[in-house]
Amino acid sequence: MSAPNTKPKNTAAYTAQAAIAFGVSLVGTGIGIAYLPLDTWQRGFLAMSGLFLVTSCFTLAKVVRDQQESQSLLSRVDEARLEQLIAEHNPFRSVS
Description:
Blueprint: H1 12-35, H2 40-88
């Protein structure tokens, strides 16, 4: 007997909201940097810092997701071992 697929799914609306929020925040940051009363090198520094922040956020999200997936995989393996032990156990078998 196999367990049903219980992996949670994101809705299309949630995915669209996340993508729109990311785009708006990235464009807003770019416009804000462009209109600051700064020299070119200072704007470049802020732009590179913002880009580094975005890429590090993606990396952190991937690491957290990978850790969660590995823990759930180990949990499923442990559950399968336990089910196998229970299925093989016969309390009425004679010990000799």
